[in-house]
Write a structure and sequence with these properties.
Blueprint: H1 3-6, E1 9-10, E2 16-20, E3 23-28, E4 31-36, E5 41-46, E6 49-54, H2 59-80, E7 83-90, E8 95-99, E9 102-106, E10 113-116, E11 121-124, E12 130-135, H3 138-150, E13 161-164
Antiparallel strand pairs: 1-6, 2-3, 3-4, 5-6, 7-12, 7-13, 8-9, 9-10, 11-12
Function: This protein binds to the 23S rRNA, and is important in its secondary structure. It is located near the subunit interface in the base of the L7/L12 stalk, and near the tRNA binding site of the peptidyltransferase center.
Domain Large ribosomal subunit protein uL6 alpha-beta: 12-82, 91-164
Subunit structure: Part of the 50S ribosomal subunit.
């Protein structure tokens, strides 16, 4: 049995959920999110608790059980607290700044990189060497952070580049004479 799937998802105060068919819609203070579950699981909302049960004992039903519960829990977390990824920029002359809705990155390239965040995600640069990506959709927040990081991944010799806050970069020793 799925240890994750067995746990019901509690809905905090101010959050409501409704199920129609295989789609669950969660409304909260930060917005509305929905998730369409596969036919291998059944969704129920009772007394501010969302429970997910597998239909049958097939391997696919057991796989979808835990995954569906995690997706519903992420919907609840997204509409209450939201998700946040923090990036650090390291390197001489590397900096980030906001110009309206566009993030402008100076990363030692021959040109500045302009990145416009998609709808539903806010990107801010509190310092020149920090970028914060926030939103209610965990997948979209992670993808935007990965897209920004992809412009200049941290390199192992000097550690220059864009990294996630707290990320460890394994350093290598350079050539010896």
């Amino acid at each position: 049995m799925s240890r994750i799937g067995k746990k019901p998802v509690d809905l905090p105060s101010g959050v409501s959920a409704s199920v129609s068919g295989q789609t669950i819609e969660v409304k909260g203070p930060k917005g509305t999110r929905s998730f369409k579950a596969t036919d291998d699981v059944s969704l129920k909302v009772e007394d501010n608790v969302v429970s997910i049960e597998p239909r049958g004992k097939s391997k696919r039903a057991r796989q979808q059980w835990g995954m569906s519960r995690t997706m519903v829990a992420n919907l609840v977390t997204g509409v209450t607290e939201g998700f946040k990824k923090e990036l650090e920029i390291q390197g001489v002359g590397y900096r980030a700044q906001m110009q309206g809705n566009t993030l402008r990155l100076n990363l030692g390239l021959s040109h500045d990189v302009d990145y416009t965040a998609p709808e539903g995600v806010t990107v801010t640069a509190p310092k020149q060497t920090e970028v914060v990506v926030e939103g209610i959709d965990e997948q979209l927040v992670g993808q935007v952070a990965a897209n920004i990081r992809a412009w200049r991944k941290p390199e192992p010799y000097k550690g220059k580049g864009i990294r996630y806050k707290g990320e460890f970069i394994f350093r290598k020793e350079g050539k010896k004479k």
